[in-house]
Amino acid sequence: MKLTSILAATTALTMAAGAASAVDLTLVSWGGAYQKSQLKAYAEPYMAMHPDVNIIWDESSAEAVAKLRAMHEAGNLTWDLVDVDAADSFRLCDEGLALEYEPNDLLAPAPDGTSAADDFGAQIVNACYIPQIVYSTTFGYRTDMVGDTPPSNICDVFDLEKYPGKRSLEKRPINNMEWALLCDGVAKDDIYSVLATDEGQQQALAKLGTIKDQVIWWSAGADTPQLLADGEVVMGSTYNGRLFSAIVEQNQPIGMLWDAQVFSFDGWVIPADLPEDRLALVKDFLFFATDTQRLADQAKYISYGPARASSAPLVGKLDGTDIDMAPYMPTDPANAQNVFYYNFEFWADYRDDIDAKFQAWLAG
Amino acid sequence: MSDMTDTGPMRAADGTPLKKSLARALRRQKLRALALIAPLLIFVLVTFVVPIGDMLFRSVENQIVSDTLPNTIQRLAGWNPDSGEIPDEAVFAALAVDFQAAAEEKNHTKLGTRLNYENPGMSSLFRKTGRGADDIGKNFQKTFTGFDKAWGKGEAWAALLGSDKWLAATEGWTKDAGPEPKFSARDEAEFALPLTTGVYRSFARVARADGKKAAADTKPWPVLFNALAEDISSASPEAIAAIGGPSADLLKSAAQGLSSAEPISYKDTFVAIDKGWADLGTWQTIQAYAGDYTPGYFLNAVDLEKGTDGIKKRPDQQRIYLMLFWRTIWMSMLITGCCLLLGYPVAWILANLRASTANVLMILVLLPFWTSLLVRTSAWKVLLQQQGVINDVLVWLGLVDDANRLVLINNQFGTIVAMTHILLPFMILPLYSVMKTIPPAYLRAAKSLGATNWTAFWRVYFPQSVPGIGAGAILCYILAIGYYITPELVGGTQGVFISNRIAFHISSSLNWGLAAALGAILLGAVLLLYYVYDKIVGIDNVKLG
Amino acid sequence: MADVTSGAGAAFVEFEHVQKSYDGETLVVKDLNLSIAKGEFLTMLGPSGSGKTTCLMMLAGFETATHGEIKLAGKPINNIPPHKRGIGMVFQNYALFPHMTVAENLAFPLEVRDIGKSDRDAKVKRALDMVQMGKFGGRRPAQLSGGQQQRIALARALVFEPELVLMDEPLGALDKQLREHMQFEITRLAHNLGITTVYVTHDQTEALTMSDNVAVFDDGRIQQLAPPAVLYEEPANSFVAQFIGENNTLMGTVKEIKGDIAVVALDDGELIDCKPVNVSKPGERTRVSIRPERVEVNKARLQKGAHTLKAEVLEFIYMGDIFRTRLRVAGNDNFIVKTRNAPDQVRMQPGQQIEIGWLPQDCRALDA
């Protein structure tokens, strides 16, 4: 007991003295280009301002929910801040694994004085979630394999006559079920109420059944760009940032379909039960990393839209190039004419049930 | 030697009975041996037995329901799920208390997630109700605090309902002094205000568990006011008057002011928060999963479900696990068979080559071990996909039409090819080490005795290599059954295994109970096969070298 | 080397100019010519690496001759696979099939020859009785002792009544007493059944006690092919002399050859008479060989014509039935003399100066 308190006292002293003895801050993210954008936009500037803070990355976001639960059960929390998609944040929040926070207390207001809660608005989908970016799941297609009329409507995905060839879809019901109903004549506003019924679910699966033979199901975000690049599929769904990389950075003959793309978010959650000192550091980092300029900066490195309204006007060009980011942003008005909003509450309820049916349908 | 003539027990040189001194000597040896294996024993226990035990336990554990809704479960026992009517007011009243406590401890969403596995929609029902639960009793809270501001403070409630003994014990308690003394009720209060005392008991328990503030310093739950209002309207004035203690006057004045007030309906309040509470299915689910232990996960794992009228099959469109179990078993067998077919000749060549050449070949066999699993699997993708190397070559050779390229991946074929490749070393190594011990003289002897090459192999060599086949096959099979990364990447929809679902439930749906049940069944299946193998081939007929 | 043919009778097994190389660079067997008569017990004796086992394997069909022809009963067998040669074989470690019982082991050669069950059982029983193992039919090889396994291996090689049986150091794994017993058993069986036997060993005692003829192998060649007595008494060259039995050698130069007497000047200048074996002209270097038991240390017993030499006793070893004395003779410190432990035999002391002698015909001048 004595030793720890002495240690704690020494740590506090050295921190106060601003000595170079580093404090670790463990961030969990997805790796790849997305993590790099976080590193460039906020982690590196933060470390430059605080030389005593050492940011460590853990590329575990894909398994974050399970790992956080396991850490919690074992009582050994090694993460300080976890990047998860909005759907996962519901589980974490429901399970009491993520900390509930007050937006205006924790986050910086916009430069014009708008409060954080208003600036983020509805993007704060639950009490634990601190959104960073808006992304969309949309379709990319091979420009050289679709003839003279590239697909412009989401329902072209289901049109095997007009666009023969394989498609890639994610191996889970989310998004696919909505698109199927949309293209089966269900009005956009009714989709989730229809999908809540067994008949609606069967209707969606039946619609998906019309192209089932021609679908390659993916489970990693990198799959569709690769399948498109290899010419394995004519079109496929993936995150718009992945398509951006394939088009702009790898010059692949790929086009993007901006219709009924599904809006979703990626953001931070703070693990519940962080010790006081670590929580203080996390709060300090978050205040900086989610301010208007930092979120706008992130868009210099990846084509995901900032989650703050006030950041949008500040979005510029791809870092070090002359490429305007706006046309690739899901938040750009030209792209956002017909977007589809992911219903988190619905999927939090129906995910397991529909997933079981979807997997049975896939296997059948 | 004179001992031999003695009729008594043999004695050691120092006179102790020989048996005793032998036992002592042996015990020392045993203890020393035990000390030597102790680290391993502890390691195995901690890393193997305990987690498996924990997993098996999770597959039936269900205490979360009775822990979170203790009062509701108790009241619900009398409800007939087939009555066609939702439970009565008493159950809802209990639910209000339980919800207040659960929301305070943030347990209601956990329970919602748990019950959502059984009945979709429960998750948002509980989340939404958690947000609204605070409002139940808000009206009476206003009424009471209107009588006297003191009602808004914890102190008044503690004084009213706590026994003098408890009040004395908790007086001046701070969080540094360890857990707060356990609540005990004032007898006359319990008699006159049974509902309120019951709610307060939950309140005190939550406050104590939280450990930050004494119950007397904690803001009272709104639902307490509701309960008190109800108690006051049904209790006799004498009984209320009998309650002593510091808050006696507070209560009396409130009782007079309240006499005309109509208590609210908990049922209506809940239904107003979410229509789900008026749904029969909600209550049937809660009642069906009220027990501390449930067969639900196991039933689910074999495509059954527990309804109000007993166990029945799940609807067709939800049945998947039995099919996946079956597929996992037969495809693993096929993969094991392919490994044996390909691995046996390789092992034979390895065992019969000169050591230097064999070592070079052995490196080739082991090479896949040193490559990342993902890299290997991705390499198969490049090779097998429709625009991949194999199809390109076939088209170039004119064996396959460009428009009808073969589908070699994202199906069962892909899984079999990739898994066979990955598991081949596990077949070759035991086979090789067993074959290495079969002297070439046996084959020569058989041939000199007149056997053809085939007879010599089949009658003499093969039976001696069976232990290696057994070891390799068991190894391959058990590994194949548990694989999920490779099937996920190359198996498409028809080539995935049960382990993929287990992984999904562990990492994505967080339904660890179901994952544990599936895992337990898989473990059972492996043990069963092991037993069958033992019966047919004999487990002592397995050699790793 | 001239054609070596053993004994009388028509040749049953013939090696004609057989050569064998494994690596294409060195010959393991160099121009082997050998014929074995029917019913003969021939032993191939030699140090390891001398080519004897290779010869046996070529005969069995497990190795192919690089050059030359092997004939069995007059027919070339180079292209006949081993299982069609009908040759019984006993292996070094018996090679009894561990997963079969003794009876199954014995039935195996009969089964592959499609012999009916009742016939098979009768033959197995007879073979087991022949090696006095009648009761062990149901056992597994691992449950038998080494000697018992040896008998079973023998019975298995004989059960299908081959005319030729090959044995590859079959007694190597047995202890001395059992080995001697089995040597007797094997020769008895071979002679009783009248089968031709080719026996490979590196143990000269075994070779001498069991064989009709012994072929001594060295360096891929047969150095001498002769009945045991001839081999011992009249080694054809210094290798055979060294390899078979114990031998004293003295180096010298041939002075002159007069009929069957060669005068040899030993390196210390002493002149002795020897029997010339493969020396042909004066001036040649020679290795003079004398068996230790042919040296006489008791002057009184020396026969007429015996040659005497001075010797110094270096060591005296008491071995029970014999005394073994190490002497320094003509500069050789390793000159051994064996004397019978007779009542009148002197026990010599180290340092003692004595005179020794031998008959000229016991002293053979061989190649150097």
Index terms:
heterotrimer, A: 364 residues, alpha/beta, D-Maltodextrin-Binding Protein, domain 2, 2 domains, 14 helices, 10 strands, 17% strand, C: 368 residues, alpha+beta, Rossmann fold, OB fold (Dihydrolipoamide Acetyltransferase, E2P), five-stranded mixed barrel, 19 strands, 35% strand, elongated
- Gross morphology of chain A is globular
Question: Gap between N and C termini of chain C, in Å?
Answer: 18 Å
- The appropriate CATH architecture of the largest domain in chain A is 3-Layer(aba) Sandwich
Helix content of chain C: 10-25%
Estimate what percentage of residues of chain A fall within beta strands: 15-25%
Query: What structural class do the secondary elements of chain C suggest?
Result: alpha+beta
Shape of chain C: elongated
Total helices of chain A: the number is 14
* CATH fold descriptor of the largest domain in chain C: Rossmann fold
Oligomer: heterotrimer
In terms of DSSP E residues, the strand content of chain C is 25-35%
- Would you give the CATH topology of the largest domain in chain A? D-Maltodextrin-Binding Protein, domain 2
CA-atom Rg of chain A in angstroms: 22 Å
Helix share of residues of chain A?
Answer: 25-40%
CATH domain class of the largest domain in chain C: Alpha Beta
